[in-house]
Amino acid sequence: MRRKTGTSPGTAADWPGAIHRALKSHRVSQVSYVPDAGHKRLIELCHADKSMKTVPLTTEEEGIGLAAGAWLGGERAALLMQSSGVGNCGNALTLASNCGFPLLMIVTMRGEWGEFNPWQIPMGQATPDALRLGGVRTLRLARAEDALETTVAAAKLAFEGYGAVAVLIAQRLIGTKSFGETP
Amino acid sequence: MSGAKLDRREVVRALLERRGDLLVVAGLGSSAWDCTAAGDHPLTFPLWGAMGSACTIGLGLALAQPRRRVLVVTGDGEMLMGLGSLATVAAQRPGNLAIVVLDNERYGETGMQRTHTAYGTDLAAVALACGFGKAEIVRGTAQLAGVRSGIHRGKGPLFYQVKIGSDPVPLVLPPRDGALLKHRFRAALLGSKAAEA
């Protein structure tokens, strides 16, 4: 039985490292985020990467504007968030729909697998449909070993297909937050 | 009363004349119409929606083009919807970015309802508190030369809250097609590279 392996570098379970490599290989040079525990390592990797301008946001829709501005200026951007932030993005998605700005969102899921906080469940459950209604294509990432391929596929859809794409990282993959409770 | 205040069209015309290679993002509504009235330009990206996004679009552009000067022109209502973006901009300290807020203390497109600046919110003080090196309130034409100088040569991020009148002005609309606006901006800025992803 596979135990929760964490995200130590250089192992197959280092899915944040794989996402980081995929972003680099697709020349993503602006990474914005509202933090999530599930994104902790990826955020650290991006901050440590001199080829990336890593931008903390106060709310997720700022990252959609940032990505549009980056593209106007000839750069590629990615936006990291938790599923609870998807609901903050609604109206800003018109930038992707109307202008065809590429948008690559990497979303860690809450409220779908052993969620201990009921307040996370409504937005988490609504996330795939909310994105679809907003014109965002979704790719699900459920296994650590698929992180590189899935992120590369999403980057191609976004930057070569001029579309809005979200990678939804399964809560089961991240590990359920428990605030010290025994799972 | 409003006769004593700056005229929005004259302000924007003064700021955008002889603009050099300035890159401009115009917030939705009257600010975009003002920029168009000063001369529709491929290196102006006028917004027709995504209210609250003007500053972050300017930030993404400023980070992508550190050798170019970037100006965001927007209204008080649009700025208020993205108030947090002032903190996001300040945290990045983009030296090439200036933000001009045309503040008539009204939501101009929806019936001239009073915005929070009419109730006392001080946007320049918010920008300073967020970490902008400079944030000024502009009330007279004599200050506009300084604003121009800041936009073209000042150490950003810079914030100017320009108090304007609320007299109606004629509609002067930019193209509405977002894909066109994006393409022409990238073509003018990036040349043949605009066609590359």
Number of strands of chain B: 8
Instruction: List the uncertain runs of chain B.
Output: none
* Main pleated sheet of chain B: 6 strands, parallel
Helix content of chain A: 25-40%
What's the number of extended β-strand segments of chain A?
A: 6
Structural class of chain A comes to alpha/beta
Q: Order of strands across the widest beta sheet of chain A?
A: 2-1-3-4-6-5
Distance between the termini of chain A: 16 Å
Q: Which band does the percent of strand residues of chain B land in?
A: 15-25%
Shape by Cα distribution of chain B: globular
Q: How much is the average pLDDT of chain B?
A: 96
**Chain pair with largest interface:** A-B, 36 and 39 residues
Amount of helix of chain B: 25-40%
**SS class of chain B:** alpha/beta
Give the H and E element order of chain B. Answer: HEHEHEHHEEEHEHEH
Q: Counting H and I runs of at least 4 residues, what is the number of helices of chain A?
A: 7
- What multimeric state do the chains show? heterodimer
What's the gyration radius of chain A in Å?
Answer: 15 Å
Instruction: Profile the largest sheet of chain A.
Output: 6 strands, parallel
- On the 0 to 100 scale, the average pLDDT of chain A is 92
- Structure annotation, total helices of chain B: 8
